[in-house]
């Protein structure tokens, strides 16, 4: 098969082929992170709705919306976000935001992250989200988390792949 035949039969749009396997930039990563943040927000809201519904079922006549959740929302958010990110990166290399933006998180060898690395990266990303802004000044498009944990976020529109660019 010639190179032109390969390009013609590739499922990737022509404009995306040049980026396939390269490290993602700050804008793409931030958009994916916002999508993931919205997913976590929806999950936290569903937890709140479940707790509120349960309290209503226990005491329907004297029901009032639970108060005092203010301090626990960040804790619940952390408890939801870290496993959400870690499981996505460990199992497929992607979270929902990564899928939408055509991104994959890989280790230095281009493989999916191991469980420990996924967990460490997730906790690091949730605890220090501003670290992603380092991508904007990094000549290699790597966040603080990527540098410390030796990971990369690549453009990858294929369903399954191991690559590094």
Summarize the structure in words.
There is one protein chain. This protein is mainly alpha-helical. The protein is 54% helix and 6% strand. The protein contains seven helices and two strands. The chain has helices spanning 3-9, 14-17, 26-58, 72-91, 96-101, 115-127, 144-149, and strands spanning 103-107, 151-155. A two-stranded antiparallel ribbon has the order 1-2. The longest helix has 33 residues, at 26-58. The radius of gyration is 20 Å and the shape is elongated. The model is unreliable at 1-6 (pLDDT under 50).
Give the tally of β-strands.
2
The major β-sheet equals: 2 strands, antiparallel
Figure out the total of helices. Answer: 7
End-to-end distance, in Å? 23 Å
> Can you write the helix and strand succession as a string?
HHHHHEHHE
The rounded Rg comes to 20 Å
| Class from helix and strand fractions | mainly alpha
The share of residues in extended strands comes to 5-15%
Rounded average pLDDT: 87
Brief characterization of the structure:
The protein is mainly alpha-helical and 165 residues long. It has helices spanning 3-9, 14-17, 26-58, 72-91, 96-101, 115-127, 144-149, and strands at 103-107, 151-155. It is built from 7 helices and 2 strands.
